[in-house]
Amino acid sequence: MLSFKAKMQEAARSKGSRIVLALDLPYEAYQNRDRILVKAQNILKMVHPYICAVKINHHLVLPLGAFDGVQQLVEHIRGQGLLAIMDAKVNDIGATNQTIAQYYFAAGFDALIANPFIGWEEGLRPLFEVAKRLDRGIILLCYMSHKGAYEGYGQTIIDPETGEKTLQYLSFAKKAVKYCADGIVVGATQPQKIREVKQVVKEEVPIYSPGIGAQGGAAEEAVKAGANYIIVGREITMALDPAKAAGWLLDSIKGI
Ligand code: XMP
After folding, report:
1. What φ, ψ does residue 112 adopt, rounded to 5°?
2. Given ligand 1 and candidates 20, 141, 145, which is best to mutate, with the most ligand atoms within 8 Å of its CB?
3. Does residue 86 contact residue 113 with C-beta atoms inside 8 Å?
4. Residue bearing the CA closest to ligand 1, atom 11
5. pTM higher than 0.85, yes or no?
């Protein structure tokens, strides 16, 4: 059985794309949630030739339901040869994390995003265990793409293992290698931090980079800095022509 990391490599190779679509749509009155599903399906129909995976967030699960609209979408995604990532940013005690993961994996997701601030014992460990048992992936946050990320991910800390000063995100990068995470998320708004993290994780842990377009990051810069995959939402989902927007993005990173 291939690991999620290997499945992503294969999907990127066969699709000729390193773009992960963030299938994000703005708020609509819940009475119109059928329309949200139709919109999401239409975007997928238009964009699937340009991407290798789709990332779904809480704000799609809330109106559509994990075992209703979202499960249908996940089937559609996987039916196109794409992988499905749940951006749950799992962030609780281990027992709760395990149950959250079991539900999302039962809905068909190939991987979950989790927050390393919770620590290993009784935090991440039970999550990694359930993912391993079910042959799914865990991607860890490392440095988020929004402006306030420096307050947490950018802190200077004393590494509890070495007693030396380091930066929080570099410590998370080292831990991602140690835990054999399937990926790490570093914002495209911080290409220098992608470079620094790349030196730590090398090719062992792929870097996923969100924050392209709407948040100010550039796909080319992120990939040049070492991102293996770029995560793109509104730049595609809110475009007048989502297929064209995805095609342009793909052209902008081809051959880098
Ligand atoms: P836009 O529209 O800005 O959407 O392209 C970005 C998508 O990615 C998510 N996002 C993140 N997810 N770590 C994550 O795990 C991050 O640092 C991060 N920054 C943005 C965001 O929720 C949206 O779905």
Report:
1. -125, 145
2. 145
3. yes
4. 210
5. yes
Query: Which atom of ligand 1 approaches the CA of 143 most closely?
Result: 17
* CA-closest residue to ligand 1 atom 10: 210
Cα 216 to ligand 1 centre (Å) = 12
193 annotated active-site = no
Q: For strand 165-167 and strand 156-158, is the pairing parallel, antiparallel, or unpaired?
A: antiparallel
Name the residue type at position 200.
V
pLDDT by position in tens, the chain (length 256): 899 999 999 999 999 999 999 999 999 998 999 999 999 999 999 999 999 999 999 999 999 999 999 999 999 999 999 999 999 999 999 999 999 999 999 999 999 999 999 999 999 999 999 999 999 999 999 999 999 999 999 999 999 888 999 999 999 999 999 999 999 999 999 999 999 999 999 999 999 999 999 899 999 999 999 999 999 999 999 999 999 999 999 999 998 8
Residue carrying structure tokens 């559609």:
76
